[in-house]
Amino acid sequence: MIQAVKPGYMQPIVRRTRYDALPEGADWRDDGCEVAPHCLECPLERCRYEAPGGLRGLLNSTVRDPQIIILRAEGASIHTIAKRFGLSRRSVWRALVKA
After folding, report:
1. pLDDT value at position 54?
2. pTM
3. Closest CA to 67 of 30, 99, 32
């Protein structure tokens, strides 16, 4: 909010900076996650915390979805693929559309 000092003259209100907004106040420990004990040792191409869907989304796009595509290319029906992976037919179509 801007506060008026004199009519026709405006001066911004100076606010304090958050202590955790600066790099000096950040916690930089490399605790890793269940994938790897440290971030620098992680085998994933993208951090699970930055990927949409998290770890499950990464695993689906790198492991499950290519298998779905191969099965469909080999002639398996959508219903068969859905049953094999425990998915709905719509989820199988979603994986195929991404490819």
Report:
1. 87
2. 0.57
3. 99
